[in-house]
Write a structure and sequence with these properties.
The protein is an alpha+beta fold. It is about 40% helix and about 25% strand. GO terms for molecular function: catalytic activity. InterPro entries: Biofilm_reg_signaling, EAL_dom, EAL_sf, GGDEF_dom, Nucleotide_cyclase, PAC, PAS, PAS-assoc_C.
Length: about 675
C-alpha cells in the first residue's frame, strides 16, 4: 500500500477508491499526487508508488494546462464536483487521450476522478474490463470477506501470498489463516469494521505450507443500501522483509550479541519500568551490579576468544540464579546487572548474591582442556531507599561493587553514603589522569641495583611517579589502578619505556662503561602493537644487555602467541628478561627452562622476613640455588637492613636493591652514585 502523505485521509481518500473502475487521485493544491488508485496509475502508465509526489499537471497536454489550472482553482473552492474536459499524455510528444475530470475539495486537498471522454456507459464498460485485468495482475493482494469473515473473493496475487490456489481460498474463514494472537487481534478489528471503521493492520499469516508471512492489510467495511454490514474488502502487501529487518535492528539495539542477554539500552528501559511498578505498588526492588574478578587475566592469558567463551558460560550460570520475573543484562565487557523486583525481604537479594558468588567460583571449561578461574564482586542497591531514579540507582550499585572489589573480591556489599564520596574521588582521579597523560606529568625515578660481589652500582630499576600539581609526587599504588580503568595505562607505559631507553643510553655515554636499566612491562603492552615501542628500542641500537624488562610470573602461564613472540624479539635485540616477584605467582618450576629468562627477582615479602632461622631464608636460599642451576642470576628486592643484606650475600644472591643502599631518586642522583661506587 502507498501510505497517505496528508492528514484527514479517512475523509479525503477512502481505500475503496483504490478498487474503483475509474481513475481516482488525491492531489495537493499544486497538483502533487498524494495517492492514486489502481486504474489511475494504469491510465498514466506508472507504478502507484512511483506516481506519488509527481505533479498531475505534468501529464496534462501542454495546450490544456491553462484549462487545467482554472479547473483546479474552481474545484478547490467547491465541495461539489466541478467538470473539465482535456487531454492527458503519458510522455511528451504523445497524441494524448481525451478525458473528463471531476474534482472537488476535501480537507484542503483535491479529490479528482478521471473518465475517458467517449460515451460514459461505453467508457465505464471499457474501464471495468481494464479494472478486471488490473485486479488479476495487481502486485497487491485483493481479498473480500462476507459478514462472517469467510472469503468471497481473492485475486491471484492474494492466493500466491498465502500459498493457495484461488479456488482453494473460496469460503475459507479469514481466522483459519492466523495464529492465536492474530485471531485475537482480528476479532477486535472485525467488531470495529462492523461499526463502519476502516482498519490498517500488520498481521502474521500462516501460509499453506505452514510457513509464516507478514502482511500489511488495509480493510474497508462494505454495507448494503440499508446500512447492513456485508463484509469487508482488503488490500494486502508483503512486509515480511521489512518486519525481519525491523526486528533484527530492534534486537541488535536491545540485546548483547555475545550472550544474548539484554544490553544496557534494554536494561535501562526495564529498570525504569520496574521502578514505576514498585512505586505504584509501594514495594521495593534490588539492583545487583556484578563484576567478574580476574577476567582480565583470563583474556591476557588465553586470548579474547577464550574470554568470550567464558563470558557466555558465566551468563548462563548467572541466568540460572534468576527468577522468571528478574532481568539479567550485560552492560559492559565483564559487567552484568540483575534487576530483582517484587522482593519480600532484603535477605532475598542476599540469597541471589550468595548463589551468584557460588556459581562463579566453580571452574570454567575452556578449549584445549584448559580451565578458567574467576570470582564475582557484587554491589547491591535498593529502591526506593538508596536512590530516586534509575541512573542514580545504577551508580550506587556500581559504587557498592567497587567497595566489594576493594574489600577483597568474591563478596557482595550494600551501598552506603560513604561509597558516594569514594566514587567521586575516583571520577576526579580519572579526569586528572587523562590530563596528566596529555601534559606529561609522569616521570621516572630510579632505584640503584648493587652487585653484591663487587659492591658496584651497575644497574637501576625505573619506577614511575606522577608529579600531581596539587597532591605532589605520587607512587604507582596511588594511581595505577585508576590508569588501567580509564584506558591510559598503555600510553603511560609506552612513555615510561621510551624514557628508560633514552636514559640508559645517556648514562652509558656519561659513565663510559656498560650500565643497565630494568623496567616493568605488562602482558597488555606485549600484546599491543599500536605504540611501536619495540621499533623505538631497535632504532636506538643499544648495546646488548642495556635493558631488562621485568615481567610478571603469571606470564609463564600465557598460551603461546604474540606475548612470547615479542619476548623472543626483545631477546634477539639484546634486551634481557627478569621474572618479577618470583614465588608469589602460580607458575610451575618446569616452565622456567622453557622461556628466555635471565633473572629471577625475589619478592620483597620473602626478604622482609629474613632471619637466621626463618622459613623465608630457606625460601630465598632455594630460589637462589634453583636459579643458579638454571644459569639465571637473582635480584633481591626490598632489602632494608644490613642483617638482611648479610644473609642474602651468604646465600649467594647476585644483586640487590632497597633502602639499605638508596631510595628511588631522579636520574642525576643515581648517576652520581654510580660514579662514586665505580671509583
Amino acid at each position: 500500500m502507498v501510505p497517505s502523505q496528508a492528514g484527514g485521509e479517512g475523509e479525503r481518500f477512502d481505500d475503496l477508491y483504490l478498487l474503483a473502475p475509474i481513475g481516482v487521485f488525491l492531489l495537493d493544491p499544486d497538483s502533487t499526487i498524494l495517492q492514486v488508485n489502481l486504474v489511475g496509475a494504469s491510465l498514466l502508465g506508472v507504478d502507484r508508488a512511483s506516481a506519488v509526489r509527481e505533479r498531475f499537471r505534468g501529464f496534462v497536454a501542454p495546450r490544456f494546462t491553462g484549462d487545467f489550472d482554472a479547473f483546479v482553482t474552481r474545484a478547490l473552492a467547491s465541495r461539489e464536483p466541478v467538470r473539465c474536459g482535456l487531454q492527458l499524455q503519458r510522455d511528451h510528444g504523445d497524441r494524448g487521450v481525451p478525458v473528463t475530470l471531476f474534482g472537488c475539495a476535501v480537507a484542503g486537498a483535491l479529490r479528482l476522478t478521471v473518465e475517458p471522454a467517449e460515451g460514459r456507459l461505453a467508457a465505464i464498460e471499457e474501464s471495468e474490463e481494464r479494472f478486471r485485468r488490473i485486479v488479476q495482475t495487481a502486485r497487491e493482494g485483493i481479498w473480500e470477506f462476507d459478514s462472517e469473515a469467510r472469503t468471497t473473493f481473492a485475486n491471484p496475487r492474494m492466493a500466491e501470498l498465502l500459498g493457495y490456489q484461488v479456488e482453494a481460498m473460496a469460503g475459507r474463514p479469514l481466522l483459519s489463516f492466523l495464529d492465536a494472537e492474530g485471531r485475537s487481534l482480528l476479532e477486535r478489528n472485525i467488531a470495529r469494521q462492523q461499526e463502519g471503521m476502516p482498519g490498517r493492520h500488520e498481521l502474521k499469516f500462516l501460509r499453506g505450507d505452514g510457513s509464516e508471512i507478514w502482511l500489511h492489510l488495509t480493510a474497508n467495511p462494505l454495507f448494503d443500501a440499508d446500512g447492513g454490514f456485508l463484509g469487508a474488502l482488503a488490500l494486502a502487501s508483503d512486509i515480511s522483509e521489512h518486519r525481519e529487518s525491523t526486528e533484527l535492528a530492534w534486537h541488535q539495539a536491545n540485546f548483547d550479541a555475545l550472550t544474548g542477554l539484554p544490553n544496557r539500552n534494554m536494561f535501562q528501559e526495564r529498570l525504569r519500568h520496574e521502578m514505576k511498578k514498585a512505586r505504584r505498588e509501594r514495594g521495593f526492588l534490588a539492583l545487583l551490579f556484578i563484576d567478574l574478578d580476574q577476567f582480565k587475566q583470563i583474556n591476557d592469558r588465553f586470548g579474547h576468544q577464550q574470554g568470550d567463551a567464558l563470558l557466555v558460560q558465566a551468563a548462563a550460570r548467572l541466568g540460572a540464579c534468576m527468577r522468571a520475573t528478574d532481568t539479567l543484562a550485560r552492560i559492559g565487557g565483564d559487567e552484568f546487572v540483575a534487576i530483582l523486583p517484587g522482593l519480600g525481604h532484603v535477605q532475598d537479594a542476599e540469597r541471589v548474591a550468595q548463589d551468584i558468588i557460588a556459581v562463579l567460583n566453580r571452574p570454567f571449561e575452556l578449549a584445549g582442556g584448559e580451565q578458567g578461574h574467576i570470582s564475582g564482586s557484587i554491589g547491591i542497591a535498593l529502591y526506593p531507599s538508596d536512590a530516586a531514579d534509575a541512573e542514580e540507582l545504577l551508580r550506587h550499585a556500581d559504587q557498592a561493587m567497587y567497595a566489594a572489589k576493594n574489600g577483597g573480591r568474591n563478596r557482595y556489599t550494600y551501598f552506603t553514603d560513604d561509597m558516594q564520596s569514594a566514587a567521586q574521588q575516583r571520577a576526579r582521579l580519572a579526569v586528572d589522569l587523562r590530563r596528566a597523560a596529555g601534559e606529561h606529568e609522569f616521570e621516572l625515578f630510579y632505584q640503584p641495583i648493587v652487585n653484591l660481589k663487587t659492591g658496584l652500582v651497575e644497574r637501576a630499576e625505573a619506577l614511575l611517579r606522577w608529579r600531581h600539581p596539587e597532591r605532589g609526587l605520587l607512587n604507582p599504588a596511588d594511581f595505577i589502578a585508576g590508569a588501567e580503568s580509564t584506558g591510559v595505562l598503555l600510553d603511560i607505559g609506552d612513555y615510561a619505556f621510551r624514557q628508560a631507553a633514552d636514559q640508559v643510553l645517556a648514562w652509558q655515554r656519561e659513565l663510559g662503561r656498560p650500565f643497565q636499566v630494568s623496567i616493568n612491562l605488562t602482558s597488555a603492552q606485549l600484546r599491543d602493537e599500536a605504540h611501536g615501542w619495540l621499533g623505538y628500542v631497535e632504532s636506538l641500537r643499544l648495546p646488548p644487555k642495556s635493558l631488562v624488562v621485568d615481567v610478571s610470573e603469571d606470564l609463564l602461564n600465557e598460551p603461546a602467541g604474540h606475548v612470547f613472540e615479542r619476548l623472543g624479539r626483545l631477546h634477539a635485540m639484546g634486551v634481557q628478561v627478569a621474572l618479577d616477584d618470583f614465588g608469589t605467582g602460580h607458575s610451575a618450576l618446569a616452565q622456567l627452562n622453557q622461556f628466555d629468562i635471565d633473572y629471577l627477582k625475589i619478592d620483597r615479602s620473602f626478604v622482609a622476613g629474613l632471619t637466621g632461622d626463618s622459613g623465608d631464608l630457606a625460601m630465598c636460599e632455594a630460589i637462589i640455588l634453583l636459579a643458579h642451576k638454571l644459569g639465571l642470576e637473582v635480584v633481591a628486592e626490598g632489602v632494608e637492613t644490613q642483617a638482611q643484606l648479610a644473609l642474602l650475600k651468604a646465600a649467594g644472591c647476585d644483586l640487590a636493591q632497597g633502602y639499605v643502599f638508596a631510595r628511588p631518586a631522579p636520574a642525576s642522583e643515581v648517576l652520581a652514585l654510580a660514579r662514586q661506587t665505580h671509583a
